[in-house]
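Backbone shape codes:
***
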Amino acid sequence: MALGEQFVDLLKALIRQPSVVGAEHSFFRVLQRELEERGARVSWYEGVLVAQGSEPDSAMFSAHIDRHGLICTGPNEFQYAAFVAGRRSDLLGNSVSEKLMLKIVDRFQGVPVVAYEPWSGAYRGAGTITNAHICEYRNNLIFEVAGLEHLVAGTPVAFSDRLTLQQDILSAQLDNVLTAAHLVHLYSLGFNGTTFFTAQEESGSSWRFLLEWFRRFNGATNRLIVVDTSPYPDRYSADQQQVVLRKKDANAQFDPDTTEQLAQYCRSLGITYSYKDAYIEAQNLQAAASGQQVMSLGSTELGRIIAASHGFVQGTTLQIPTSAYHTMRESSAMSANHAFSQLLLHAAKNKPALASS
């Protein structure tokens, strides 16, 4: 099975719709239309949209739908939305690290942006980021945007983005509209299970909305598969595998049976895979040997929900390797996306091996 123009057209359309972290309601409306057109039943809950086919228990996949952007916080003053949504822009010692701010401060210079009304998605104007600096008094990152001086505080501002496809490489701000598009497209391919689309993952909050849904229906599981992109330093490193698995992150161990089942599916389908935690640990051994700083195993939506629920909700992750993470040039190989889609369908059709707890 190969992904065709239908998937690429869907991804193009979704990328053009803003979904700034903390202001995702209008994107939920777009997803609802796309999902219902494909025969899914859609329900809205706080922070999570749930789509179900005729066999909702056959498989459960989850993707976050928020992307990075800005929030207007005063006259011609804008802050990084993830910091605001995550309550990390206050004066109480919970501010973002200087290292992270310095990493971001020059990343979006000259990037075109578009402002929108968060519930309806109505257009509120366009502009260009002209400057970013760290405010020494508030210990926070402040952006200036030409063309949006008229905005009032609370207005979300998305990075203006379009998908490009060159030499079988998809490029855009892919995290995480890419795997969200895959989940929508699954229903066009005959998928009948359940998909979750969560808000505010980039600010570390999405797991709360997902866990509340499972507690609402007292539905413990070890079969949740959370899908996302997975960053690598360059295209060569990303292309060493078609999909990325994990046995754990910095928060928790993932369900070993579900993880191993995905690995078995990869082997049977001829899909190349690697474990991201093993990759990071190998990189850290080299870094430690040379006196360099080691990396964290990373914090995923699944790890947070496993830790917070004490195992009430369990499962594993499945990710698409990308390069140029969290930029407008994040890229992903079409071969990886073909393999990812094939693996999702295979996992859904082989539900006995992923039995509920």
